[in-house]
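Entry 12.
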Amino acid sequence: MKTRTLRLLTLLTFLTFFLYDCKDKEADSLAPANTELSSQLDKLELATTTLQETPDVKLVPGKVESSVKTQELNSSLSTVTAGNIPASVSKAAEEVSTSLTPAEIKALNEVTPSQATKTVLNSDQVRAILSKAAADVKLQGYLSLFTAAKVDGLLDGGRTGGVTDGTSSNSAAVEKDNTDDCIARANEKFEKTKERLDDSKAKELDKINDAYNKDLERIQRNLEKCTGENSPAHFEALRQVGIKIANDALAALEKAKPFLKPGQYEYLKALINVQLLDYLAKVNQLEAAKIGTCTEIAAIAKARAEETKNSNTARVEANYNEALAKAVELRDKMIENCHNQGSGK
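Predicted 3D structure (tokens):
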């Protein structure tokens, strides 16, 4: 009797252990495939993409400006009195007297600002005087300062670099038709992660498109500005600035004439006129210089904006593909663990 009872108890113990073991295996198949892998999948994010900015390709107009010595002389002329002839005035007159011939001084003094046309500037005599003044160290400092136009934004001379596309990924679920709850949960976690990555990617692409549209707006503004800065009216306005400077200086010289020493008036008038002729010649040079039309520069700018957009898009796509490939890897490992858990079922 005792033996029979002992056998019955042993059988019940074995049956209980068997039922618990099966239940545990079933529970394991329903639980997350691997806590660590699941956590990694939950935390997976799209890497931050450092977006390139499009260089501001635009024409920087050239300019012609009065030199510091010219400004100083013109200012000093207005302060001449019977008892005061500034050193800058006396020095300027002396430098002209030793640099230019009487015939050259006479020819310059026959020119008035209103007569300083292209015909006068292109005359052999005026061209020769300007060349002589430009080569004379004593007169160079009185001549206008010339800055050529240039195109900004192309200093590197290169194109926007591309990037690799990253590792593309086949995101199809492993054993997608398998109804095992463990596999289903792994796929569910993967899909949630993919949705998060898709959302982050869409936001990055929106930033790129917004930046591109702003680039196009800036390019249009630059085009309109460039067109205005290269119009005949713009260069005529520059000429009028030079003519006004000369007229103001001549007016101050006329007031100072009674107080000047013999010969100083003629020398200073010649200097003012050579400054004017040099200024106008440089404005003509600026207008004639052709770097490229405003439309051509705008086309270059648009091409650079397109390159930047494409490069940034490729960077985002590469980061997205890398993240998605990692998500697939984690999901597949989780599904592999599902098989391991279920093998004793």
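Annotation: The CA atoms of residues 118 and 281 lie 8 Å apart. The radius of gyration is 42 Å.
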